[in-house]
Amino acid sequence: MTPIDDDAPPLDPAESLALIQRERANLVRDISPDPRLMFWPWGIAWLIGFTLFFLRFGPDGRVFADLPAWLPLLVLSVLFIAAGIVTGFAGGRVGRRVSGPSSRQGALYGITWSLAFTAFSVLFAQFSDVLPEDRAGLLWAGGMVALTGALHMAGGALWDDRHLFVLGAWTSVINVVGILVGPGWHSLIVAVAGGGGMIAAGLIGWVRRR
């Protein structure tokens, strides 16, 4: 007589543990957004937007590309809006399949980003007019990148995600370096190392999922 499932011999402890780990990995993959959709839009936005800032507002007031002064900020803003839409859609699709504490954590984390950036924007707006143009630009860019790095590290700590924490730490370090070397160079460092870091994070996360 052909044995049915109930007649099959039980798995040994090693096989049982391997089965549990495989099923857990499958579950995490199913309820986690695609890392490429979460990081690549922002990485591309940083890479293109801050490169334009470097070309138009280079170190020591140099202009490497004679662009309209308003163009880099406009492009960066449009790219940020597009990145927010893409990541919001990707996160929302996954969020609808998750309930309970994890869902609330994600929602509260998203609200934290919105309120923190709003508060920083209001604060920096109070000081922009009393600073030279290049220093005001450095204040805005350095402050926002610093906030991004801190929130990435907080998210990594919240979800025990070592790769997200490393990305936040990397962003914070390159931001400090850019601030120290000054306006112009900060834009280039954030574009290449910051945007490139996010693109790399998306690629690494995608490979890990596979």
Structural category: mainly alpha
Stretches where pLDDT is under 50 for at least 5 consecutive residues are: none
- C-alpha Rg (nearest Å): 22 Å
Task: State the total count of DSSP E strands.
Answer: 0
| Domain tally | 1
Question: What order do the helices and strands follow?
Answer: HHHHHHH
Instruction: Report the end-to-end length measured between terminal Cα atoms.
Output: 40 Å
Largest sheet: none
The overall average pLDDT, rounded, is 86
Strand percent estimate: under 5%
The proportion of residues forming helix, as a percent range, comes to: over 70%
Coarse shape: elongated
So how many helices? 7
Tell me what you see in this structure.
The structure is a single chain. The protein is mainly alpha-helical. The chain has one domain (33-209). 77% of the residues lie in helices and 0% in strands. It has helices at 13-31, 35-56, 71-95, 101-125, 133-158, 162-181, 185-209. Helix 2 (35-56) runs antiparallel to helix 3 (71-95), helix 4 (101-125) runs antiparallel to helix 5 and helix 6 (162-181) packs antiparallel against helix 7.
How is the topology of this model organized?
Blueprint: H1 13-31, H2 35-56, H3 71-95, H4 101-125, H5 133-158, H6 162-181, H7 185-209
Helix pairs in contact: 2-3, 2-7, 4-5, 5-6, 6-7
Task: Give a quick summary of the entry.
By secondary structure, the chain is an all-alpha fold.
List keywords for this structure.
7 helices, mainly alpha, 0% strand, single chain, 210 residues
